[in-house]
Amino acid sequence: MEEMAGRPRLSWGQRILIVALGVLIAAVQAMIVQAYHNLSGTIRSLDTATEVLTDLHDAHRETFRLALTVDRFQLPDGLDEMELRRGLLDRQLEATFRASDDPGLREDLAGIRGQLAAFDADFARLRTRPTTARLDQARPGLQRRTEEIEALLKSTYGQGETQFLGAIQQTLYARRSFQRLLIGTSGLTLIVVLVLALSLRRWVNRAFARAYAKVVAEVDERKLAEQALRESEQRFRALVHQASDVFTVIDRDGQIRYQSPAVESVLGYPADKLVGTGMDALIHPDDHQGFRELLGKSLARPSASVVGELRMRLHADARLSRRFEMTITNLLGNPTVGGLVLNYRDITERALYQEQLTQQAFQDSLTGLPNRARLLEQLSFALQQRGSSVGLLFLDLDGFKQVNDTFGHDAGDELLRQVARRFSGCLRPSDTLARLGGDEFVVLLPSAGNDDAAAVARRLEACLIEPFVLADGTVTIGASIGVALSPAGQFTPEQLVREADSAMYRAKVAARAAAR
């Protein structure tokens, strides 16, 4: 509170001047932006007016040419020329109508097009009976229509010129008004800046006097802060000694410079015996490289933390180890610490639980084979490989239901386990055997063609020839096998599984038909 009370503050007048200055600057910027916006709109308006005047001029020229054509019109060749001139005039009027957004001009253009429609009606009657007599009779009417169109175009063109000149005059007036407003606002801004600068100069002088007094007070405060820091260090050391996590401080070479006592309860090592030794003595040999990589990442990121998982050996038996989550914070640049701070906690139970969850998600609990989720994952990867064909065998055990009905489900489960072991022994190391459920198995054959798939299918059928010995007796079963092949990228995993399933069903039906 004393620090806040001694801190120099701006007066209300200075604050008002700063706010006014900000408002004026914002107003000038807004005016400039608005000026550019208005300029853009003016340019568009002038462009539109210029385009309309040009189109009206061209329409007037086409009207004049149409009038000449009417005067010199002769049968029969003049019909096509007359229709051509009329079409050019209509197209020019359409272009003028699209370019203009003025309601009055559009109304005039609509009247002109109405006269042109009357001209079309007279010309259509002449075209139905193109005779010299009809021509002499129709020519005065056509000439009158073209004269009326020409008169309307002249009137419309004069209105367009008047509007164009009015727009230019209005733009010039708006520009002069904006310039006066901008000059006035800029002058007012300069006045506010000058007044604020003089006020702030006096404020700085007073602030300097207060700051000098504050420096004197901070000397005493620093002494109190140093005393508080020593007490804080003592509390921190007590907390570290009682913490369940292990703290270690090492140098950049991995030598232990400080070891918290918690290491004795976690790993069994006396803390004082570890100081001066290397961290490699605590870490499992297979994870030495991983620790070095984690250490390298930390050295490359001063003041940052990196996290990794490592196995650490127990003091009672170096052959035993537990999994730890280790966080390394690079405080080599901190003169108080001057090392790398390692914080690690035992996560063995959590890691084992996660591995069990992963195994349950991707492994068949009865046979230990990959389940449908794992199969689709590996099948998706195989289908993404370019330039290779993927084979899939879908197997359904024949006679399995009779075993279940005769000997019970326990015997059926034992039979499935034995079948899984036999099938696994008949496959190549690169092949994948999975159980989808019930008595259905699938074999994934990466980089396999028709001959490879047929050979594997024959080996699997041969694996079932020898009877299976169960607790309650001996049984013999067979298998219906469906084969599906797909060049990489042509099928999704689900589609390929359905293709193999359909092929297995067809094979089963064919086998039953042959048995009859």
Description:
By secondary structure, the chain is of the alpha+beta class. The protein has three domains: about 10-200, Lipoprotein, type 6 (Four Helix Bundle (Hemerythrin (Met), subunit A)), CATH 1.20.120; about 245-350, Beta-Lactamase (2-Layer Sandwich); about 365-515, Alpha-Beta Plaits, CATH 3.30.70. The chain has 14 helices and eleven strands. A hairpin with a 5-residue loop joins strand 1 (about 245-250) and strand 2. Helix 4 (about 105-130) crosses helix 5 (about 130-240). The protein is flat, with a radius of gyration of 48 Å. The termini are far apart. The relative contact order is 0.06.
Task: Summarize this structure as a short list of keywords or feature phrases.
single chain; 65% helix; Alpha-Beta Plaits; alpha+beta; four-stranded antiparallel sheet; Beta-Lactamase; disordered N terminus; 3 domains; five-stranded antiparallel sheet; flat; Four Helix Bundle (Hemerythrin (Met), subunit A); 516 residues
| Overall domain count | 3
Mean pLDDT: 81
Note the run of SSEs as H and E: HHHHHEEHHHEEEHHEHHEEHEEEH
Strand content: 5-15%
Q: Output the CATH topology of the largest domain.
A: Four Helix Bundle (Hemerythrin (Met), subunit A)
Give a brief rundown of this model.
The protein is an alpha+beta fold. The chain is built from 14 helices and eleven strands. The chain has a five-stranded antiparallel beta sheet with strand order 2-1-5-4-3, with helices on both faces. Strands 7-8-6-11 form a four-stranded antiparallel beta sheet, with helices on both faces.
